[in-house]
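Sample entry (733 residues):
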Amino acid sequence: MLQLSPTPVTLWIGIIALILIGTLSFLTWKRSPHRGRTAALEIIRMTCALAVVILLWQPEWLTVIHPNTKPKITVLWDDSKSMSTIDATLPPVLSEKSEVVSRADWVKKALASDLWKPLHANGANEVSTAAFATPVESSSLSGTDINTPLSEILDQQDNLRAVVLFSDGDYNLGQPPVAAAQKLRQRGVPLFAIPVGSRARLPDIEILSVSAPSYGIIGENVQIPFVIRSSLDRQVRTIVRLRDESGREHTKDIVIPPNAETYDSILWRLEKEGSSTLNLSIPVADGELIATNNSREFTIAGRQEKIRVLVIESQPRWEYRFLRNALSRDPGVELSCLLFHPALGPGGGRDYIQKFPEKLEDLAKYDVIFIGDVGVTNDQLTKEQCTLIRGLIENQASGVIFMPGSLGNQFSLLDTDLADLMPVILDDTHRNGMSESIASPLSLTTEGRTSLLTMLGSNEEENPTIWRRLPGFYWHAPVIKAKGGSEVLAVHANRRGKFGPIPLIVTKPAGNGKVLFMGIDSAWRWRRGVEDLYHYRFWGQVARWMSYQRNMASGQRVRLFFTPERPEPGATVTLNANAFDANGAPLQKGTVAIDITAPDGSSQRLDLQKNDSAWGAFSGRFKIDAPGAWKIRATASGAEDKPLETTLIAQGVEIEKTGQPARPEVLEEMARVSRGRVIQPAQLEDIIKEITALPAPRPLESRIPLWSHWGTLAALIALLGIFWIGRKLNGAF
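Predicted structure, serialized as tokens:
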């Protein structure tokens, strides 16, 4: 059946247009000497005009389907893992004792009751039940999708009277369920939602996440951050325990506040090469109802690392001498020193180089660069060399440490490309720095107390005490304040500026690399009474922390790093690669291909996009859709026989959790959109009255919009073509 939907304006426009065209056709026919042929042409003209006017009135072909079956009522119930939460109170209609049972048991009792018999009476309705979101074998992939089962019911049934939904409203997969509610409204099918479960979270302490690094250096501490959430109404003092497969463990005392999330970290010393599986756990607290989420397992790899370090200095001050000794004696560091002695020229001897690396391939080998009291002068650095250093930091994930001195040479770096890397603002009126008459100590900030850079103790509890006992400094850089985006680890304990305590140890990310500002020149004094204990440890940690990103995965011709390090299923991983030619220079022409093998054995190839503004830099993205070990194989053009192979561990995270609060607001929105109603558990009997009062399901309507159909356009073009050809044959133009 054809149905038109004109507006008053389009209706009158169409009528007037047809009258005018009809009049024109009549006059043309009357004046024509060939009335027969002209009549045929004018009929075609009127047909085209009529078709255009009808299209203006939005024609639709309507098909009405009258079902010949009984009205259907579908009862959907949530069978997800969250429904095992024990927080649902049985209403009097289901139990006189009002027991508290699991959400799933509550639904089963409701379905097994005699409540639904009136709907079957006299065969008035056909009632069916169906479960959705039943857990699959892999619990990490199980979740709740409310939208899909509702949409499928609409597609499968043609005489649907109502839908009853038992759920806690906690969905985590698929589209928002309100989309299905809109489809129900279009069909005229109301949704009766029955929320199951409590809005309050069960008393529980849960380890939400563990953000461990993907690798660490053997013999060194790694910092493992974690997040714990408590829904208990009291403060809990507990012990975090970290244990490996051999039984070796490390513990830390923490205090978990009530109804809050706690962000903390624990240290772990790697003692063997290769992958290790660690378990982080907390004991079950009194009153806690869920014990399965009190532990998390993760893997971390131990490596023997060789870090290449370049130290640039203008004079052999005490800070430089002891820094050089510390790094040269570190078995994990390969040291190069460039000393611009004001009187003797570049220094010579073991670990020394005579000039700044001239070629990109020579500079690109360094993981960390220390820039001491040097600047841009004729016999020190040039602006071009500063540009190269910045490119190394931002593009190839190296690290740079600024260590200013009393000569004030670093002020000249503020006129180079290194200015943007400086994480602090310096006072130009005190170029030679600030002197102290007595030794002044450093004071750790909140970030500094737990940072791996400033971790001088074996645990975080004793670290602030160690820093308070360290010998103080007599000179510091003229710092006004830290720049935005920087992280201040330590400040002057005795002196304040107009912006607060003076920041002296500051870090900042720069592109793919890292920056550290060391605003004192007295770290060598930390040796007093303890020899090399804290001094060596501090600089060793600095070198390793600054080079961590760069050495995630390194091969002969490709270096690869990725974020996030430990993705979860559903996350998008960004791959950044630095490729080199046969001479070690950044790859100028060529490509980098990544072969990715998923945990199930399926593979895909990803061609990284070249960053034309960076040195041999390539990047790309791919999506993690399953937990487990993802094998990555990277090859550069011309070096297919020298691939880089590494493994990315995707943490299996349970999407569906027990103990979470119910979300009745989701069901309320669905019921409102579909013009249904939310039935509270205590009013369960009302649902029968609501459904019984519903009118019979309206017939299904199928509409084909002719005004936007391709066939209509083709027919109109054909008619216009026939009309044009007819006019030519009739001699009209």
